[in-house]
Design brief:
Number of helices of chain A: 2
Largest interface: A-B, 30 and 56 residues
CATH superfamily of the largest domain in chain B: NAD(P)-binding Rossmann-like Domain
CATH class of the largest domain in chain B: Alpha Beta
Order of helices and strands of chain A: EEHHEEEEE
Largest sheet of chain B: 8 strands, mixed
Number of helices of chain B: 15
Structural class of chain B: alpha/beta
Largest sheet of chain A: 5 strands, mixed
Radius of gyration of chain B: 30 Å
Number of domains of chain A: 1
Strand content of chain A: 25-35%
CATH architecture of chain A: Roll
Oligomer: heterodimer
Shape of chain B: elongated
Order of helices and strands of chain B: HEHEHEHEHEHHHHEHEHEHEHEEHHEE
Shape of chain A: globular
Strand order of the largest sheet of chain B: 8-7-6-9-10-11-12-13
CATH superfamily of chain A: Beta-grasp domain
Strand order of the largest sheet of chain A: 2-1-7-5-6
């Protein structure tokens, strides 16, 4: 089980959860596991077998694009951070 | 009985006699001759306080008392020409003799010294120092060895452009102005309204209904009259970005609230080599990093293109904890000040994530993307792109 950190912009897709656990020996397996359980979250980050280009994924603090992308190996101690682009600054409320 | 023995002391020369004697042993030249010596090292042997009040441009300050110990660092080649000067030509005469004794073969003393040099209208360099008022105002900066008077002068010389005078721009602009950043530009087309005051601390009840740039300018100028505030009451677009950036900004602090502006700022900054201090916020979470063109990643290395509208987080329904932009905007001010003063280790190649609800900072490594469409090896984007605004619903 890896720990997946959910950024606030995606928490409505996880019922407000800040972290979720997911299984997978590779990032692809983990994402597919997550997508199966939480299709709305999956749609925000993943489609047609690829991560969306506007979503970054970090495994243990490192961008997976610098590792093996979706084939990046995970272990039980891995922390996965999902990071979609966020524009807010002046933030019109 | 023994005869009387007379001890005869030779008569010791007076200062004046000694000086005259020394002047016969060295070469003394006037300003015109000295200036004509090719490649001469100019050595100012006066005391610190005299140097502080002005000196000959390009000269090296080696006080007479340190001449023997420091001259070899200042002029390693003993065959190279040296012009020594002091206030009126006396100390430099002795210094020239000392240098000759140390093996320097091509030394002259400037006749009449700095006094005549200045009187005859030759160019002088006045070292920049802080006025007593500024020394007091910035005393807590000056006390830090890493900043000091030199760092403070750099801040006073710096020009920082803020994108937005909102949640992030408010604290960032206040701290930059307080720090004495000499020129602060602010781009914002909005008017101050009641919902802003929960977090936009550069504005106040007094400025409700007025343009944010005017409101911010008034606050910042009341805080620090050293700061020139330039307001741009307009929305940043591909039409006006070059005009604004042509006005000479060293650093951009990006607190924009929408993707089109973020990409516009990024692309322009890469092409112009201007570092961007990035901050963004949503509800309880903030992010900060520094995009330093060609040294670290740019925004497009991180996110090559904006998300499609249906997958973009909705800004209007987002909301934000008021203090969060205070924290992230202050981090941005910190990065901008470090860049301007040339100190520390900026947040280049590192993205800092802050979770206000759990008070947790996380750092992830971000790298340049060799295939980046803007700063990569073969850029495919070479002109501004006007993305459709989709986030101000």
């Amino acid at each position: 089980m890896s720990t997946v950190r959910i950024p606030p912009v995606l928490r409505s897709e996880t019922g407000g959860a800040r972290e979720v656990e997911a299984d997978g020996a590779t990032l692809r397996e983990l994402i597919e596991n997550l997508t199966g359980r939480m299709p709305a979250l999956g749609a925000r980050i993943y489609g047609e077998g690829e991560l969306h280009s506007f979503v970054n994924v970090y495994v243990d603090g490192e961008d997976v694009r610098l590792r093996d992308g979706l084939d990046t190996r995970l272990d039980d101690a891995s922390t996965v951070i999902l990071l979609p682009a966020m524009a807010g600054g002046r933030s019109h409320a | 009985m023994g005869g009387r023995v007379d001890i005869v002391y030779p008569s010791m020369p007076t200062y004046r006699e000694l000086l005259e004697q020394v002047k016969t042993e060295i070469a003394e030249v006037d300003a015109r001759t000295a200036r004509a010596i090719d490649g001469a090292a100019w050595i100012d042997v006066r005391e610190d306080d005299e140097w502080q009040q002005g000196h000959i441009p390009g000269a090296t300050h080696v006080p007479r008392g340190y001449l023997e110990s420091r001259i070899e660092d200042a002029v390693p080649d003993k065959a190279s020409p040296v012009v020594v000067y002091c206030a009126a030509g006396a100390r430099s005469a002795f210094a020239a003799k000392t240098l000759t004794e140390l093996g320097y073969t091509n030394v002259v003393s400037l006749h009449g010294g700095f006094t005549d040099w200045k009187r005859n209208g030759n160019e002088i360099k006045l070292p920049r120092t802080l006025s007593p008022e500024r020394r007091t105002r910035y005393s807590r900066h000056i006390l830090i060895p890493e900043v000091g008077e030199e760092g403070q002068l750099k801040l006073l010389d710096a020009s920082v452009l803020l994108i937005g005078a909102g949640g992030l721009g408010s604290p960032a602009s206040l701290y930059l102005a307080a720090a004495g950043v000499g020129r602060i530009g602010i781009i914002d087309a909005d008017i101050v309204d009641e919902t802003n005051l929960q977090r936009q601390i550069v504005h106040s009840l007094d400025t409700l209904g007025t343009p944010k740039v005017d409101s911010a300018k008034a606050t910042l100028e009341r805080l620090n009259p050293d700061v020139e505030v330039v307001g741009y009451r307009e929305r940043l677009t591909s039409e006006n970005i070059d005009r604004i950036l042509d006005e000479g900004w060293d650093i951009i602090v990006d607190g924009a609230d929408n993707f089109p502006t973020r990409y516009l700022v990024n692309d322009a900054s890469v092409w112009r080599g201007i570092p961007v201090v990035h901050g963004s916020i949503y509800r309880f979470e903030g992010q900060a990093t520094v995009f330093k063109p060609h040294e670290g990643p740019c925004y497009r290395c991180l996110f090559p293109e904006p998300p499609p509208p249906e997958l973009a987080p909705s800004c209007s329904e987002g909301g934000v904890l008021g203090v969060l932009p205070g924290i992230i905007g202050s981090l941005q001010a910190n990065e901008a000040i470090k860049l301007a003063a040339g100190i520390g280790e900026p947040l280049v190649g590192r993205l800092l994530l802050f979770d206000a609800l759990y008070t947790e900072f996380t750092e992830v490594k971000i790298d340049r993307n060799p295939n980046c469409p803007v700063c990569g090896e073969h850029p495919t984007i070479t002109g501004y792109i006007d993305y459709v605004e989709f986030c101000a619903r």
